[in-house]
TrEMBL record:
This is Sieve element occlusion N-terminal domain-containing protein. Residues 12-240 form the Sieve element occlusion N-terminal domain. It comes from the Eukaryota. Gene3D superfamilies: Glutaredoxin (3.40.30.10).
Length: 668
């Protein structure tokens, strides 16, 4: 019923709580026959039900006073004050929203002098008083003037109007009350077992009795939970009215956003004000001056909305800042503006740690950002999630000077071309790819040129020139890295070709990649990128190429760049190592796993071809006998690819690939 009350203690916590419970127990020897009192309590709780509302035409049930009071009359005289005090204590503690565990211990301390069965029955009786009064007023408010006035003070008519909406809560309370009564009856039954037939010292009995304090604790804690629910109903009518009004405003704001994005405007201010809180005249922070400004500074400009949560990774932000600064360095007027819209979960409390994270991120950004995440309208958050499909991965939504969305996510474009992609429209993205395709079509070896383009675009092969070979390799298995680099060095020496090897790791450069870099450095196996950001950028640009091509409907059958990108990403998806060796602008060969090492180990059998054909063509021919039809190609892409409906085809055999959903937590 109350999630906070569903706390399961660990074994260590359990022993601490048990000590606290037992510390409250100090019986003074008084013995109370609790069964009659429990029967009265049960009668109250059963009759106090939200399903019974008395109408003026209904007949009130006649109650036999003797049945209720003969057995409990004398007992109630002694316990009335205690029950009243405990009832007040429960109401007071629950009204203040205190800790349920602490409240339960307070009640146990108040009942310290009673036996375990008496504690739980008195607590139930105290709850029955307030619970019974609550529903007695609710049931009689239509026929009794006094009940009507009290009901108005407690706003019970509003509660009854929402009976259908509150039914799950009432059902939960009733189910918990039933469980409390069942447990209490069980405790009393144990106490009433005749000692002449079963001794409390027998192992089975002793074990059962050892659970009684825990059962009493959780039953009284359940009383606190039920009471908290009833107390929270007071004034519900106002809260519901406020909720209904707020919900209506939220729906209207969302519909307004939908209409605005479907309408042609003379500028972008209406849309920006609808997205960002219209209640604040200066909702933005200028990243260059750190001063608060209004959205008017963005009027009739190309605006790129950087949408993310507070967990945006360091590498992503670092590269974005570099691209932004390079594009605007030394320029007075900026071609475009970036605005960071941090999306946070409003259902999760805003903490000092989150405030610190937000301030740290915002202070590092050279562009505009919201002064505070709360200024992002809830309707805007819903629109961002529903229409722009924001989940976890950052988005870069581009608005033209009139506020029209010209690219739903330009992040892939920015990773590939940087500021060259200006004005960051989908048409510009298509034009950039057409330029590359036209260039490739004018060259003789399309696939080689495609892979060379990828290398140049990714800044992978800065030393590519005549007479020099470059080898890029990846993976995380130390044994494979050692063997490959050793045999590659030996072959390059025997073939008399200078070659530079560069380790590019994996797309998720975690601890295993760091360990591999340490081994490569210590044993001087090859070159590597010292900055982890470069490793991350290498792979994220490849992934961006794949996303960009898929969104434009390209496939490996009709696009050589797409084929080579797929191959590279499938290399990364495997557990084995891989290598790409290039020479100049045309010759390039790629292979993975054990195949390339086995081929290099047999260098003596094909080294004669090196002199005639060149090293890369000779290696390409030598690898052919190692090609097999058996393979297991994996393409692992981060983020949401669910909106990509096209079939993904294997780059190795051209067959459709199966699609699986992978959840991964990888910190090694």
């Amino acid at each position: 019923m109350i999630k906070a009350d569903r706390h399961l203690f660990s074994s260590s916590d359990d022993s601490v709580v048990m000590k606290q419970i037992l510390a409250t127990h100090s019986p003074d020897g008084r013995d109370i026959n609790t069964r009659p009192l429990l029967r009265l309590v049960e009668d109250v709780l059963q009759r106090a039900t939200p399903t019974v509302i008395v109408t003026p035409q209904a007949q009130l049930e006649l109650v036999d006073d003797k049945a209720h009071h003969v057995e409990v009359g004398g007992m109630l005289e002694a316990l009335a004050y205690t029950i009243h005090r405990i009832s007040c204590e429960i109401t007071c503690k629950c009204s203040g929203g205190g800790d349920a565990h602490g409240t339960t211990l307070v009640l146990l301390n108040s009942l310290a002098n009673y036996t375990w069965d008496a504690k739980v029955v008195i607590a139930l009786a105290a709850f029955a008083v307030s619970y019974g009064e609550f529903w007695l007023t609710a049931q009689l408010h239509t026929i009794n003037p006094l009940a009507k006035s009290v009901a108005l003070l407690k706003q019970l008519p509003d509660i009854l109007e929402h009976t259908d909406a509150l039914k799950p809560r009432f059902d939960a309370i009733n189910n918990l009350i039933k469980a409390m009564l069942d447990v209490t009856k069980c405790i009393i039954q144990f106490k009433e077992l005749p000692s002449e037939y079963i001794s409390p010292d027998t192992p089975a009995m002793a074990m059962a009795l050892a659970h009684v304090p825990t059962a009493v604790y959780w039953t009284i804690r359940s009383v606190v939970a039920c009471a908290s629910q009833i107390v929270s109903l007071i004034g519900l009518g106002h809260d519901d009215c406020f909720f209904d009004s707020g919900e209506k405003k939220h729906i209207e704001a969302y519909q307004t956003l939908e209409r605005l994005f479907e309408t042609v405007h003379i500028d972008n201010l209406k849309i920006l004000r609808a997205l960002i809180s219209s209640k604040d005249d200066r909702p933005l922070i200028d990243g260059s001056t750190k001063r608060r400004v209004s959205v008017d500074v963005l009027r009739r400009k190309i605006v790129m909305l950087l949408i993310s949560d507070l967990d945006i990774i360091h590498e992503e932000l670092f590269v974005l800042i570099q691209i932004y600064n390079d594009a605007h360095q030394g320029k007075i007027d900026r071609h475009y503006e970036v605005v960071w819209l941090p999306v946070t979960d409003r259902h999760v409390p805003w903490t000092a740690a989150k405030e610190e994270t937000f301030n740290r991120l915002a202070s590092n950004m050279p562009w505009y950002s919201l002064h505070h995440p709360s200024l992002l309208d809830p309707a805007a958050i819903k629109y961002i999630r529903d229409v722009w499909h924001f989940d976890k991965k950052p988005l870069l939504v581009v608005l033209d000077p009139q506020g029209k969305v010209v690219c739903p996510n330009a992040l892939h474009m920015v990773w590939i071309w940087g500021s060259q992609a200006f004005p960051f429209t989908s048409n510009r993205e298509e034009a950039l790819w057409k330029e590359e395709v036209w260039r490739l079509l004018t060259q003789r070896y399309n696939i080689c040129a495609a892979l060379q383009f990828i290398g140049t675009l990714l800044c992978l092969i800065p030393q590519v020139k005549e007479g020099r070979h470059v080898c890029l390799y990846g993976g995380e298995k130390i044994e494979w890295i050692r063997e490959f680099t050793t045999v590659m060095k030996r072959v390059s020496q025997e073939a008399n070709i200078p070659i530079e090897m560069v380790y590019v790791g994996k797309s998720n450069p975690k601890e295993r990649v760091k360990k591999a870099v340490n081994v490569i450095t210590t044993e001087k196996l090859s070159g590597y990128w010292q900055d982890p950001v470069m490793v991350w950028f290498f792979w994220v640009r490849l992934e961006s190429m794949w996303h960009s091509k898929m969104q434009s409907g390209r496939t490996i059958e009709n696009d050589p760049i797409m084929r080579e990108v797929m191959t590279m990403l499938s290399f990364d998806g495997s557990d084995d190592g891989w290598a790409i060796i290039s020479h100049g602008s045309m010759d390039m060969v790629k292979s993975h796993g054990r195949k390339i090492i086995d081929c290099l180990l047999q260098f003596d059998s094909w080294k004669g071809s090196v002199q005639e054909q060149g090293f890369v063509p000779a290696l390409t021919g030598a690898l052919e006998p190692f090609d097999t039809h058996e393979h297991c190609t994996r393409l692992i892409l981060p983020g949401d690819t669910g909106r990509i409906t096209e079939q993904v085809v294997c780059a190795e055999c051209n067959r459709p690939m199966e699609k699986f959903v992978l959840y991964r937590c990888c910190n090694d």
